[in-house]
Design brief:
629 residues; alpha+beta; Ribosomal Protein S5, domain 2; Four Helix Bundle (Hemerythrin (Met), subunit A); 8-stranded mixed beta sheet; 5-stranded mixed beta sheet
């Protein structure tokens, strides 16, 4: 070949500085681009062989090699793919942004599978100049009689072309690394990058350290080792779900996400129409509720890693899961990290949402016992998905279940049907089973049921459900439920009730020094409870809203509506009625009233530090009196 020099055809003199600083979002992208080009070159050759327009050896083994050489300050990318002729080098390398893939597909549009071609050279190749002072290409086309070509450029607009001594089909790209990019000559660094992007590339990748090989040659006893590829060329998501075992799914999960725990279950996505989409979504077992923020969905493009958690493709609520999604039909832009064509991407996102809903429905209908077991782990994800995606809620609303205070798992419909005679269209719930233990016991004693909604997301989820199920009202278990707990067989007449109410109200307000305290006297079915605090659902929600806004003082706008309910059937309350007018018993009455109030308040919420101190001191005094100490 005659030596040739010239200028690269570009539209601006400043194209290289732009490429170097702004074209790609991360500096290590050049490795992804150059290896992807090598993979494309091999894919093209395979396609030509398949349609009879190229020939290779029997059982041809395709490969990509990356060679690090600190001594020579070079990083090489070698493949045995389609190669290029001198004319193709001029066309695809000297004319920036003239995509070789586009030209190839146009020529073989009726025979080529577009999904298998990422983009041979074009702008991707020029990412090499982000890290190299000089780039050299040595290439030999698959075509019979082709001559090997060398192309060299130092990052300006000038290049040199001449004959190459390459004698094997394919391409070698040699980067002479810039001073500020020597980090990429570290074998461990390159291994990390290759593993990040190409763990599942369909072509075997080998990494070699040229200096390490020389050290091996100097050893008297050299061990012959068969080189092993860095990647798995046939990842689990590319297989038919019918051919995958439970052990394979679990092993793949642990390998990709470095999680030693088994996932709860998984969804294998596998479709070819109306777009090509494959992947596996895992529902991880959570160690604690806060772990729900640690999901990771890895997005691939023809088995090349693009990015984690791309929100345009993956519905936001699915990012609480872990998984891999490979979609060759994604309209990526030049850096392959950002998406175009929102309408198309929305269809992909919608399909993923549908598949997740279908999987959950299938487990609910066919494996209800397992579904119940999974619920404690998956309910934050499902609830968040309902809040964020109305279509998701519409698909799963009939399979949303709730754990009850009796340990059962019921749907909202089941709960309402079971309790319609006691409280029609009302759902009572527990937000803290320890704090509200007294109320739970009362409910159980009276044959009433409540569901447990104790996760961080449940306050929002309750409001969401009330908007979507307008006939249903949610009330916390310590809301105004005294009507359901009254002793209906009590023979106390109205005048007597009024008198008891007045006496107890006077006694407690005097003892507590609180004229504004709202007191209600009821004859409850159980005599073991002296008193309890009730708070209207509306008032409680306003208080919680105040906390959400950074603890802003909204007390004047939404005053507390706590009510102390006293049980006139309780012996302690009856003793207060007997002793209240006895002068010598006034101190005892005060002690009892204060203790009853604090006990009621403690089952409602935590006492303030000062109140807790007084409660403990009072408790010791009461015990001392009983023991006559």
């Amino acid at each position: 070949m005659v030596h040739e020099s010239g200028s690269i055809s570009i539209h601006t003199e400043n194209i290289f500085p732009i490429i170097k600083k702004w074209l790609y979002s991360e500096k290590d992208i050049f490795v992804r681009e150059l290896v992807s080009n090598s993979s494309d070159a091999i894919s093209k050759l395979k396609k030509l062989v398949a349609i009879g327009e190229a020939e290779t050896g029997v059982d041809e083994k395709y490969y990509i090699k990356v060679i690090v050489d600190k001594t020579k300050n070079t990083l090489q990318f070698i493949d045995n793919g389609i190669g290029m002729s001198g004319e193709e080098v001029k066309k695809y390398i000297n004319q920036i942004a003239f995509s070789g893939a586009k030209d190839f597909l146009e020529k073989y549009k009726d025979k080529a599978d577009e999904a298998q071609i990422i983009g041979h050279f074009g702008l991707g190749f020029y990412s090499a100049f982000m890290v190299a002072d000089k780039v050299q290409i040595d290439t030999l086309s698959y075509q019979k009689g082709a001559e090997a070509v060398t192309w060299v450029s130092t990052g300006g607009t000038e290049f040199d072309m001449s004959e190459s001594d390459r004698c094997e089909r394919g391409t070698t790209i040699t980067l002479y690394m810039a001073e500020d990019s020597r980090e990429f000559l570290d074998e461990f660094k390159i291994r990390e990058i290759l593993t990040k992007y190409f763990s599942f590339l369909p072509v075997e990748i080998y990494l070699e350290d040229a200096n390490a090989e020389k050290e091996e040659e100097n050893k008297e006893e050299k061990e012959l080792k068969e080189p092993k590829p860095l990647n798995d060329t046939n990842p689990l998501w590319m297989k038919n779900p019918k051919d995958c075992t439970e052990e394979e799914y679990k092993a793949f999960y642990k390998k990709v996400f470095f999680d030693f725990n088994d996932p709860l279950f998984w969804i294998h996505l596998n479709m070819d129409y109306p777009f090509n989409l494959k992947g596996i979504l895992y529902f991880p077992k959570l160690k604690h509720e806060f772990e729900t923020i640690e999901g990771q969905i890895k997005l691939y493009y023809n088995q090349v890693f693009v990015a984690d958690n791309i929100k345009e493709v993956i519905p936001e609520f699915l990012m609480l899961l872990k998984g891999t999604i490979d979609c060759p039909d994604l309209p990526l832009n030049v850096s392959r990290s950002f998406l175009q064509n929102d309408g198309y991407v929305n269809k992909i996102s919608g399909h993923i949402t549908k598949k997740v809903a279908d999987k959950l429905t299938s487990i609910f209908e066919n494996e209800r016992e397992n579904y119940n077991k999974y619920w404690d782990d998956i309910n934050p994800f499902v609830k968040y998905g309902c809040i964020r995606e109305q279509k998701f809620y519409d698909r799963v609303k009939d399979i949303l279940i709730y754990k009850t205070i009796n340990g059962e798992y019921v749907t909202l419909k089941d709960y309402l049907e079971k309790n319609k005679e006691k409280h029609e269209n009302k759902v009572f719930y527990v937000s803290d089973d320890r704090q509200q233990a007294q109320y739970i016991k009362m409910f159980k004693d009276h044959g009433m049921d409540a569901i447990i909604l104790s996760s961080m997301i449940d306050n929002h989820f309750i409001s969401f459900l009330e908007r979507n199920e307008s006939s249903v009202q949610f009330n916390r278990i310590d809301a105004d439920i005294s009507q359901n707990l009254k002793d209906s067989e009590s023979e106390v007449n109205e005048e007597e009730v009024k008198e008891i109410q007045q006496k107890l109200e006077t006694a407690f307000k005097e003892a507590l020094g609180n004229d504004k305290l709202k007191i209600q006297v009821e004859g409850l079915k159980t005599s073991s409870i002296s008193g309890m605090i009730l708070l209207s659902e509306q008032s409680r929600r306003m208080q919680e809203m105040s906390k959400m806004f950074g603890g802003m003082n909204m007390g004047d706008m939404f005053p507390k509506e706590e009510t102390l309910v006293l049980n006139r059937n309780n012996p302690l309350i009856q003793s207060v009625l007997k002793m209240k007018d006895t002068e010598s018993k006034k101190e005892d009455v005060k002690l009892i009233c204060e203790q009853v109030y604090d006990l009621a308040m403690m089952s409602h919420k935590q006492l303030e530090p000062d109140a807790m101190t007084r409660f403990l001191e009072r408790s010791n005094e009461i015990l001392s009196r009983i023991a006559n100490v």
